[in-house]
Amino acid sequence: MLFVNRLSLFYIATVACFVMACKPSEQDINALPVAVAGGEPGLYVIGGSFSTAADTFATPALWHGGGVLNLSTKKATSPRITAQGRDVYIAGNNGNECVYWKNGSVIGTLYTPANTSSQVTGIALMGADVYVSGTMLTAGYYPLIPVYWKNGVLNYLPHPTVKGGNDDLFWHTTGIAISGSDIYISGDNYGEGVYWKNGNIIKLPNSEYANGIIVSGTDVYVVGDMYGNPVTTTTYAGYWKNGVAVYMPNPSKISQKALAIAVKGNDIYVAGDISTGGGNTNAVYWKNGVLTTLSKTTGVGVRATGVCIDPNNNLYISGTDAGPGQYTTLATYWLNGSETVLSTKSSTATGLVFVQ
């Protein structure tokens, strides 16, 4: 059984990546040549293709070098991507199973106990070990339980369950990062963002959602959505650096979301979306707090989902732009603000990685 929550709708992906230009044309996903799934240098974009604009789940797809590889014929939730050397690793749901792929082939299944189901939220590597963050639920749907897998073996993350009422039922993970021998996992519960370091939970001030995590040097960055300071009903985009909140400017007091973060030198890039009213959004990013709008057209589900900078300081961002018709989104990436649409059919891009 698959389950739906705020992360299940091909919503976010926070990935660390280093990218270069590639030249996919604006085509139907099924009209593109088959892509190589790893072993070659270049840009890899992960996402999926919807049967209809109203679909919740999509068939996972990987774009590379002007082609596309459909990883499965089964509909699934958001896949996550990373790389090691020239090997590309993807974790996600393959129908009712949670699995991970290496260069396009399934190499492992993520154990889920009987009468439960799980959703993948991130993937990271430490040497030969594959770590995947996720969220598990019981047969009664709730409670949601934060977990991770090491080489397919399930591990439960400690989490408080003492708030009372339903407040202890909504624990999620949202991303994973490895630094040295330390394991960092972001997550949240009922409007409170946290992260775990080696299983020890750390609460984030003024947090609503923690949407992903990276480590740069000795600094830990968690990207997410914040309450105003002082608290308001408007959601602010931002990040926490070593637990200290940094807000994106919001002079118009509009709803913002921060879904991905990258750091290079002294520059900090945050990708996400801003509300344009009526349930519509624009895909945007902030560089050191300065806002840039990416999407050509506002729409439902339009957002930036991943961000990275290559060694030549080119900025790449994955996401979705508005397609024809209500609720239709198109898998997209932007190179220094210039848009490339990966499919003209209803689709999404949830992250990207570069292989040198």
Automatic annotation (TrEMBL):
InterPro entries: 6-blade_b-propeller_TolB-like
The keyword Signal is annotated on this UniProt entry: yes
Protein name: Uncharacterized protein
Signal peptide (residue range): 1-21
Record key words, sorted: Signal
